[in-house]
Write a structure and sequence with these properties.
binds zinc ion, NE0471 N-terminal domain-like, 122 residues, globular, single chain, three-stranded antiparallel beta sheet, 25% strand, alpha+beta
Length: 122
């Protein structure tokens, strides 16, 4: 599968992917990180689902901040996160699934912008 035509950060906390077939998705970095396909993150998941609030306990600063967006060869995306995590290899197929699953609607994007701009004013 071919990679997206363009991938770029969108307003710091979102990621915009435009695919060759014209599909455009904006997803939050939070969801992007949540879908990290590495073995460690996959292991954490059942625990999170079981205890619900446990997820807050495992939150580390910078977890949802994207430091760098690297590509591995021509088949995958390997982001480096603010907490130093870099072992997630998102294949294009993987990324496409995530885009389809977490695509934000225009309304959701506006709501997020309001939420984040409100935060910055404090
Ligand atoms: Zn991971």
């Amino acid at each position: 599968m071919a990679g997206p035509k363009s991938i770029k950060r969108y307003k710091n906390y979102m990621l915009e992917c435009i695919w060759n077939d014209g599909f455009r998705a904006i997803i939050t970095l939070e969801n992007f990180r949540k879908e990290c396909p590495c073995a460690d993150c996959r292991k954490e998941k059942p625990k999170d689902e079981q205890f619900g609030m446990q997820m807050l306990a495992t939150f580390t600063p910078g977890k949802n901040e994207l430091k760098q967006l690297n590509t591995a060869g021509n088949y995958a995306l390997t982001p480096v996160w603010g907490d130093g995590h870099d072992s997630g290899i998102y294949t294009w197929e993987n990324l496409r699934d995530i885009c389809e699953k977490h695509k934000l609607s225009e309304v959701e994007i506006i709501e997020l912008e309001e939420k984040y701009s409100g935060k910055n004013q404090k």
